[in-house]
């Protein structure tokens, strides 16, 4: 009977013990992810610094200058990409400048959000963090890579939403504008999942440039935060308008 039902003293299988297992990832992939997320964390700190400096009016970079500087730094990082673990000083400096100008450019959005309602920006930050972490973990722990299936979906959705946004710029439909805002939140959420899996695939094929991968994911997070903050701002504005009409 013991052979049929198993030894009562035998250890039962506990699924929870393997929840945090990274056995599906190679040591190289785990090391790459650690470096990438550390880079994202550093970038977040520098971006926050740039936003704080803008809010306190210590340095407010003009929009055009910020765009040119940011795109220039990103272009340099992409063009100087090399398949090596060692990152040059100039690439690191370009990344830090890029993050700083990005944070500085977010200053007006943060100021306006705080003006409408002080709870908007913290809510957007927490929501972005939850989505980013959960989607990244889902992508990492998903054994079956879905990048091939998601590529067509994401690219088609990006083109379609961009097309609608262009025409809505002229027609100014409020319903379309709200729908687009939520659609872009969903799209950027998919990008977090997609880019995480793309990173794992690239590392599996020998790519080692964690800085480039960090920028891709970091921009996904920034875009997600900006869209969530914009949606919350519009929502609170509508609530204020409805109260005034009453």
UniProtKB/TrEMBL annotation:
One term under GO cellular component: membrane
Domain of life of the organism encoding this protein: Eukaryota
Matches recorded under InterPro entries: Bax_inhibitor_1-related
Keywords per UniProt: Membrane, Transmembrane, Transmembrane helix
Annotated TM spans: 36-55, 61-78, 90-113, 119-141, 148-169, 175-194
Signal peptide range: none
Topology of this chain in the membrane: Multi-pass membrane protein
Location(s) in or outside the cell: Membrane
Pfam family, one: Bax1-I
Family membership: Belongs to the BI1 family.
Protein name: Bax inhibitor 1
Species: Cryptosporidium muris (strain RN66)
